[in-house]
Amino acid sequence: MPVAATHPPLVLIPCDNRMFGDVPMVVLYNRYFDAVRDQAGCLPIPLPCTGKEDLEAYLSIADGVMLTGSPANVHPSHFGQAVHDESLPLDAMRDATTLPLIRRVVELGMPLLAICRGLQEINVALGGRLHQAIQELPGRDDHRGARGRAGALTPERYAPAHPVMVTRGGCLAAILGCDEVVVNSVHGQGIDRPADGVRVEALAPDGQIEAISLAAHAGFSLALQWHPEWRASEDATSQKIFAAFGAACQTWCAARQR
């Protein structure tokens, strides 16, 4: 007889590393935490990223993983390139944690949702390549924010920026029930060469990949280049995405407790 769940599903959320003066700290923006709790119906568990974490121990208690966006980029050495713009932040310790974490989550088939940098981490972890500056490519748009590209985390910066065309028959289309949505856009990097097994789930008007899933992943896997966590409590598209992730985590949780 199945054991009744004593708590909602547990979702690991890798954190950023930042320096505040000369003090190192781990950082997780509240909006990610809130979306997992309020929209997905799960308990968010911050995961420090020092490269020294016992990932198997964390995964043994988890029912899903969500990879967040970040001001810091994935280090280009992981996809065979030199740093293009040395003024942009990097987070080598997050790379050291999330890249092996992703590969293990794919092996397990554990529910996986990724946002912005998280999408880029998945592509790199599985052998793909990124553009470091999409805005410098011929024929491509500037994806670094609808307005206030150099500003802070303001509502204007996360305003709706462009539509994305959702791939018919894909998992994102099944979640949203439509073939086009308008999204925000706050990223300079993006997928260049998709990793083997990456399925394109949505494209921007300029052809940039905006969402992917993973053929090798046995369960729920979805990565988005935009930020569904921004105003998730008010946006129907975001709510559908987090609800689908939460349902997958609930299924994993129930199976783990049998």
Give a quick set of tags describing it.
258 residues, alpha/beta, nine-stranded mixed β-sheet, two-stranded antiparallel sheet, 6 helices
Written description of the protein model:
By secondary structure, the protein is α/β, with parallel strands linked by helices. The chain has one domain (10-131, 189-256): Rossmann fold, CATH 3.40.50. The protein is 27% helix and 23% strand. The protein is built from 6 helices and 13 strands. The chain has helices at 30-39, 55-61, 92-108, 117-125, 171-176, 236-256, and strands spanning 10-14, 16-20, 23-27, 43-47, 64-67, 112-115, 129-131, 162-166, 180-183, 190-193, 198-203, 209-214, 221-224. It has a 9-stranded mixed sheet with strand order 4-1-5-6-13-12-11-8-9, sandwiched between helices. The protein has a two-stranded antiparallel sheet with strand order 2-3. A two-stranded antiparallel ribbon has the order 7-10. Helix 3 (92-108) packs across helix 4 (117-125). The longest helix has 21 residues, at 236-256. The protein is globular, with a radius of gyration of 17 Å. The protein starts with 9 loop residues before the first strand and ends with a helix.
